[in-house]
Amino acid sequence: MIPTRAELADRCTNPLLKLLILDWRFSCLLIIVLSVLAACVFLPLRIFRTTPRGVVPVVKVNLLELIESRSFTWNARKAEAKGDSDAAMICWGRAIASNPGSVAIARGYVNCYMDSTNSSNWPLSLQAASWLTNIAPHSISDLVLWTKVADKNRAWDLIDGALSGRPEMRTPETQFFWLRARFFARRFEQASAMLREMPAAESEKAGIYAEALKMVLGKKAEQDGATQLLQRRLVHNPNAIPAHEAFLIAASVLKKVDEYGHALESLKSLTTDTFRFEIDYAYLLHASGRRLEASNIASTLSRPRSARELLQATGLLLELGMTPAALKQLESESGKFADLHPTILYALLLLEQGRDDDLAKLLSRLTPQRSSADSSAFLLALDAAVHPLPVHLERLVSGLTEVKSDPSPLLIDFAQEVLLKGKQPEFACKILLQHPRTNDPAYERELFGAADEARNSDLMLSASREWYRLAPKDLRAAQNYCAMLSMFGQEPDLSLVLATQCLEAAPRSIAAKINHIAALINTRKFKLADAMASSVDEAGLSSYERSHFHFLKVKSALSLGQAIDAESASQEIAVADLYPEQIKWLEKHGLKLLQRDSEKGL
Length: 602
Prior knowledge:
Blueprint: H1 5-11, H2 15-22, H3 24-42, E1 48-49, E2 60-61, H4 63-82, H5 85-98, H6 103-115, H7 122-135, H8 140-152, H9 156-164, H10 172-184, H11 188-195, H12 203-217, H13 220-233, H14 240-253, H15 257-268, H16 275-287, H17 291-299, H18 307-319, H19 323-333, H20 341-353, H21 356-365, H22 373-386, H23 390-401, H24 409-421, H25 425-434, H26 441-453, H27 457-470, H28 475-488, H29 492-505, H30 510-522, H31 526-534, H32 543-559, H33 563-570, H34 580-588, H35 593-600
Antiparallel strand pairs: 1-2
């Protein structure tokens, strides 16, 4: 027979146990206390695996995160049912943050993004879609979804790279997006070759790009016919928006500015997603000499909806010389996006403008937006910009040296400028060399500038060579490479060709004249060099130009056996303006400039 509560209590000798048995309130309190203790122990433990089997890395969440993610998922689907895509995107994003290993949540977020007109969430959407294709590499539906997301994000290079290496995964739909990607990336020859293989199911949509390609690649008669056909597609056509976009790309390539403007106005009546085309139109107007119209467009652009659009708008303002407007826009908009690049650009412009107080204000209100190497390194660089003391500069160099992944080029540019302003050009060279950018003329230009500040003539030679190789039409690259060839006495014929090109392009430039004199000396045309030097007006020379001009006069005079003239010219040289190679040459020929300047107290 089961004992009663009173009988159980009588058997217990402990008074506390007797109380717990006789009074139900104490029993409930004990259960609650034990439950709370168990929750404190087990709730933080991530024991629920949410990634599919075989997926690495494994993602596990705790019970609270699991409950949160399901609650956010429910709210997201509820918002979608009401047609509130913005609220749905926020809920899906929070669900991913709570449970980043769920395939269902990732797919729900991506599908919601595709139905949304807001493009500001593109980084996370592309990341989620990429993750889906990685965990299911043979899933054609996930690849199609990723391709659509990448297409909406204008990630043309990503689409081209992904589909060109996976022929077994191509479908008529992905073939079409691949064609679009190559067209919008302006790889017209490759896009044209794809048209012959385009499936019939996509022929109608592909016809738009066939006509646009004829506009770009065809002969005059084909271009005119394709232009008329494509213009007819702009009106009363279910594919009017893609037709407008294709026409605008072709008109941009052909520099048809007025046609571009008319098509852009027509596109604005169909969609609000015209930001990138407005940017392109402003650049076209600027290139055709219509700067005022370009400036009006730049001033009336809609508010950027993403960090990418903000960078595009700022780049346009800077190209048009509207730096104050660019700074104002970055000041008000850069902190609204998770992407750090607009803030880095804002800091870089403030540094170049010498606005130290604004840099200090930025540092005081800035907090790491994410636990990333770029964010930490940027804070170090900003701290060094505000406090350019040796300890802060060394901390910046150490921080960037320890970064294992490649920091963004913009961050490296900012760090380099900070180090140069802090009078540490050797550190700037070190950072640039540690994080090289292959086949990038801008990188070689920056490396040359840092090496120039550090008076590292060997590095200047190698950087100028690469800069000229990558950008042979850039007169600055040609002029600097010519100067370095002349300094080192290398490739005399090439140095003279480059010097002549630069002088013809800028016949009044003092730097071009000095460069040409150096090239004449490099080719042993000493009399011509001497004659050209006599035509230079020394009154307009800066201290730096004067030193280099008289250095060349010394070289020319010594080569002509005019020792007295050489000695006289050497008196006009400030050794601080020269490079190690030049000082070595002078000392090799018996001119002790270091000793002379020391005696003068220079």
